[in-house]
Amino acid sequence: METLDYFLPQVWFGILALFLFLYVMLDGFDLGVGILSLTSSTEQRRSILMTSLSNVWDANETWLVLMGGGLFGAFPLAYGTILSALYIPVFLMIFGLIFRAVAFEFREQADRKLLWNIAFGAGSFLAALGQGFALGAVLGGIQVDDTGHFVGGVFDWLSPTSVVAALTLIQGYVLIGSTYLVWKTEGDLQQTHYRTAKIAAVTTLIGAIALTAVTPIFYEAARSRLFERPLVFIFAIIPALGVVLIGLLLRSLGKEQDRLPFVWSILLFLLTFVGLALVVFPYIIPTEITIYQASADPSALVFMLIFIGALIPVMLFYNLYQYIVFRGKVTAEEGYE
Amino acid sequence: MEFLHDTVVLSRMQFALTAIFHMLWPVLTTGLGIYLVLVEGLWLTTRNKQYYYHARFWAKLYLLNFGIGVASGLPMEFQFGTNWAPFSEAVGNFFGSIIGFEASWAFMLEAAFLGIMIFGWERVNPAIHYVATILVAFGANLSTFWILTANSWMQTPAGGTFENGIFIVRDYFQAILNPFMAVSVLHMFLATLETSLFVIGGISAWYIINKRHPDFFTKAFKIALATAVVVAPLQIYVGHLSGEQVYRHQPTKMAAMEALWETAPAGQPADWSLVSVPNPKLERNDFEVTIPNALGLILELKPNLSEPVQGLKEYAPEDRPGAVGLVYYAFRLMIAIGFFLAALMGVTLLQWLRGKLSEEAIASQRWLLLGWIFSAPLGYVAVECGWIVRCVGRQPWVVYGEIRTVDAVSNLPSETVLTSLSLFATVYSVLFITALFFGRRIIIRGPRFDLPIPGIEEKPAVETQPGEFKPDERPVEAQQ
Predict the structure, then answer these.
(1) Is B148 helix (H, G, I), strand (E, B) or coil?
(2) Which partner for B263 in B182, B229, B246, B311 could form a disulfide, CB atoms 3.0-4.6 Å apart?
(3) B175, B160 in Cβ contact below 8 A?
(4) What is the mean pLDDT of residues A13-28?
(5) Does residue B457 surpass a pLDDT of 80?
């Protein structure tokens, strides 16, 4: 029983981390392409950008819904506390996601596209901004009482950490969005996004360094846990690997490779994500409440593990399948009928 | 304007607004999904390309609804955490799991296969495309199942107990199969289907009246009608079962639905109120028109009540729904629409049987067709009314008999909630008008009959293009 009490929350921490990573990776390029659409020089280019997402955006966004549902069921206390603490960033994100979601269909139908171009680009930006603030606020710590309930103010989320996190996340999304476009487009458009990818790779790196510098949790984790053996390796290895990956990314962009830049970007996201997860673990509401304190009843965790856990491979499979169905470059003629 | 400073009221208004708006879109996608499965199946079995063009045309409306449905669904999920944190913490063990199930079982399925259904006609073969369409419809209806399961549990919590304010599940299957679940799921399933059928029928009627592709749309009209023959009466029966359940399990909601202040005792008939002006302050109805002895017939299909119908006065004011008039009239409007749609179906069926709906004669059925156009939005109104009865009638409880709404709300400054509520009101008004505008445009543009038909090998160009004249240049002798 004792081991089960530790094991189940850890499993669910892992599953939610997986959902969140899939969301950040998949909707990350989705939102990145949206932000990049603000810079599109022609309607035709913008059409290609949106067509490259038209069949995947809603499934990508569903990972967020899934992560939300999983967090609600597995760590109900954290769900309530974190979301009510992050009221403003969460609604920034939601309004952003609403604007960009409706833009897909409305733009297609509209004669004058300007309004929906803005809705799509600015909505994507707003969503990324909200997510960045939320990430920064969670890393910066949420003020709770000893039962884990939020006791701070509505603007607590606004801090140097959250501002840097928001800027960095936007850069990261632009990076992965650019490399997605490199993969999915050709010609001049592809050339443009080789350039945006290179710029974003550098700005993301700067952001990551700045974020490490301004986030207290990194110091605390370093102070209290740096000398635990595995962590020493992790904290030494992750930054080193990050630098290597950025180098590989820039090299493949320089060589104008098609798919590798996207792969390197994904690995870069994965590495950052693993690093953050290791720093945060075992907290779910840093730096007060651990996953063991916030977790649902063990029976609920088992129940969800059976009904959601078993479905994860199936969901991954059919999501992959639809990427295979729509493989290949997006051209101007394709897309909406 | 005291309520503008009351976080509970504002959070409730925000949830109500976002729920009412959200509900408008999945109603059509779940019901229309089934229709798309039907027409694509007809195309595959008969190879009549008209059905293929039906699938393509109605899918456009599907897509328009789907985008807004996805977007407006997000705030529904996240609001449980942002505005109802104590509720989330108390019921996460069960309710949270179910929300997770909806996302993983239903929503992901619908979202992932929608791409193939809409954009994949030329990328996969027709059989796989059909599987995608079925999975999209199945996913949408599975969403109905999980959401109604979760909501039913809030009406009739079962399968565990509240310990220190937290619901601990003893038996998950008992919690899922709570008393309200089966009938509620069926009622909502039929509601989305019936609404969609009358939308399809109404739009088709508009085309027929305007003499645009009348043959094509007579087909859609008849498919919708034939399905409504089963669905509309069945929905009235399931609605009756649903009311009967409220009578057994939720006495305060029952009393509000009937604006009943004094208890109607068992063993004798009671009047059914048709029109009334409830006055919660004086705990009576200022004005009332009743149908004598009808309440027992409506509830139990027999004149005498077997159990008393509790009056609102049996409960302290803080234990009964506040908005009695709203619940009362929403309930009556829903019933009126249910019967009206069934009657319209009945009359149209009669005309069909008399041969008046043939492709030549249907245009002369002007009043009938106008009736269908008028009925297109009615299903939506009934659905919203049903949810109002269900959730406003459940007050003052968020989980009936267990958690009060006032105890379930997050500790937020009222200005913050007022700001988000105002933003929702503004954005959703714009979206609603825009969606109507573009929906209208899709309808005015009408179906396209030049789309390539997938799965049919393009015959060599010589057969489709006018043949070029090639004079026989062989020597005359060889031509013989």
Answers:
(1) helix
(2) B311
(3) yes
(4) 93
(5) no
In whole angstroms, how large is the CA radius of gyration of chain B?
27
- What mean pLDDT is predicted for residues B226-238? 94
Rounded CA separation A30/A46 (Å): 13
CB A137 within 8 Å of CB A121? no
Asked if pLDDT for residue B267 goes beyond 90, the answer is no
Q: What is the pTM of this model?
A: 0.90
Give the number of residues written for chain A: 337
Give the separation between CA B30 and CA A151, rounded to whole angstroms: 41
What stretch of H or E contains A28? helix A2-37
Q: In terms of Cα–Cα distance, which of A328, A32, A22, A56 is closest to A201?
A: A32
Which amino acid, B40?
E
User: Per the CB < 8 Å rule, is B74 touching A88?
Assistant: no
Range name among A19-28, A100-109, B301-310 with the lowest pLDDT average: B301-310
Q: Do residues A66 and B103 lie in contact, with contact meaning Cβ atoms separated by under 8 Å?
A: yes
| Chain A partners within 8 Å of B74 (Cβ) | 61, 64-65, 94, 97-98
Q: Which runs of consecutive H residues, i.e. helices, occur in B156-291?
A: 172-176, 181-209, 214-249, 251-257
Name the pLDDT band for B465 (thresholds 50, 70, 90): very low
* For range B471-476, the mean pLDDT: 56
pLDDT single digits (tens) B4-51: 888 999 999 999 999 999 999 999 999 999 999 999 999 999 888 889
DSSP assignment string, B393-459: TTTTEEETTTEEGGGSS----HHHHHHHHHHHHHHHHHHHHHHHHHHHHHHHH---S-SPPTTSPPP
Q: Which residue do the tokens 């399905």 mark?
A: B227
Q: Identify which of A94, A105, A308 has the shortest CB distance to residue B74.
A: A94
A56 φ/ψ angles, rounded to the nearest 5 degrees: -115, -15
Q: Cα-flanking dihedrals φ and ψ of residue A6, to 5°? A: -90, -40
Q: How many residues does chain B have?
A: 480
* B56: exposed, middle or buried (Cβ count in 10 Å: 0-12, 13-18, 19+): buried
**Residue-level pLDDT at B472:** 57
Per-residue pLDDT, B475: 57
Give A-chain residues touching B172 at CB under 8 angstroms. 299, 303
Domain boundaries defined on chain A:
2-325
What pLDDT sits at residue A218? Answer: 67
Other C-beta atoms lying within 10 Å of the C-beta of residue B425: 15
Does the beta-carbon distance from B97 to A304 stay under 8 Å?
Answer: yes
B102: CB partners within 8 A, 6+ apart: A69, B142, B143, B146, B147, B150
Please tell me the predicted confidence (pLDDT) of residue B456: 62
- Over residues A314-318, the mean pLDDT reads 90
Listed by number, the residues of chain A in 307-336 with a beta carbon closer than 8 Å to a beta carbon of chain B are 307-308, 311-312, 315, 318-319, 322, 325-326, 335-336
Q: Confidence class of residue B459 from pLDDT cuts 50, 70 and 90?
A: very low
The answer to whether A138 contacts chain B (CB < 8 Å) is no
pLDDT at B474: 57
Chain A touched by B171 (CB under 8 Å): no
Query: Which residue in chain B has the smallest CA separation from A312?
Result: B104
Distance, in Å, from the CA atom of A90 to the CA atom of A149, rounded to the nearest integer, reads: 18
The closest of B77, B114, B82 to B10, measured between CA atoms, is B82
Cα three-residue angle B267-B272-B277, rounded to 5 degrees: 135
Residues of B in contact with A58 (CB under 8 A): 66-67, 70, 111, 114-115
| Banded model confidence at residue A262, pLDDT cuts 50, 70, 90 | very high
Asked whether A196 and A37 are in contact (CB, 8 A), the reply is no
Residue A208 pLDDT more than 70? yes
pLDDT tier for residue A337 given thresholds of 50, 70 and 90: very low
